[in-house]
Amino acid sequence: MIRRLALLLGFLSGLVTGFLPPAVTAGAWPREAGTGFASLSQWQGLDGADSYSALFLEYGLTPRLTAGLDLGRSVSGEGKAVMFIRTPVMRILGGPVSVELGYGEIAGQPVLRPGLSWGRSVVRPRWTGWMAIDSRVEVDLDSRELDEKTDVTLGLTLLNPDGRPADWTMMLQLQTGVVDIRQKLFLLQTEGIQPGASFLRLVPSVTYRLRDGLHLEMGYVHALDGSGSRALKLGLWSTF
After folding, report:
1. Res 45: pLDDT
2. Who is most buried in 130, 170, 182, 191, counting CB within 10 A?
């Protein structure tokens, strides 16, 4: 399935414009028609933590419709391959709200992945920044198990005197996910057990512009859930 999804998106190409934050982070912001974004990341676990790779692709089909491919690791830690479509539906608190629907496989099982995103960008004379909230639910179509993941991202890019973005962008992301929401809610109702997050991570990172359309990402992953797991993240971002 991964090969079929990759081939379907392989022919897409274009040219992206605008400031780095909304263009690269996408999420609630629709990608401009005829433009694309790709990121290839390596998560290197420390102190025995797992390591894995991830590939993310997006392409603007129309001014309001963005298609994408998400390969990597799911909320439960299994391998995933999900193709999705996203569109903006409204504006709240000065930023767009977009809905997403994805379909693919997790650990070889068919999944449906609805999602909801909100974002807001701010431009000031010396800097440009953004905030984004992205939430998705992975629905196993066989077992009906529900896993949920939410990311909250803050980003900041300084501006040069001529108004162009500087080479460095700073980001801070809070990642949280819950595996098997229905089971945890059942325990809450019957035994008074609070449904805790299956993972809670803080991920500070920076990106550096290697050249136009190509950025290097470097980050550090620190678990806040008591597991003590840590990882380094290294990635390449490309707009085309």
Report:
1. 87
2. 130
How many structural domains is the chain composed of? 1
Residues 190, 187: Cα–Cα separation, whole Å: 5
pLDDT at site 194: 52
Poorest-pLDDT segment among 24-28, 118-122, 123-127: 24-28
pLDDT tens column, 46-79: 877 778 899 999 999 999 999 999 999 888 888 9
In CATH, what number is assigned to the domain containing residue 166? 2.40.160.40
Q: What is the 3-state secondary structure (H, E, C) of the chain?
A: CHHHHHHHHHCCCCCCCCCHHHHHHCCCCCCCECCEEEEEEEEEEECCCCCEEEEEEEEEEECCEEEEEEEEECCCCCEEEEEEEEEEEEEECCEEEEEEEEEEEECCEEEEEEEEEEEEEEECCCEEEEEEEEEEEEEECCCCCEEEEEEEEEEEEEECCCCCEEEEEEEEEEEEEECCHHHHHHHHHHHCCCCCCCEEEEEEEEEEEEECCEEEEEEEEEECCCCCCEEEEEEEEEEC
Domain that holds residue 140: 2-239
d(CA 32, CA 53): 27
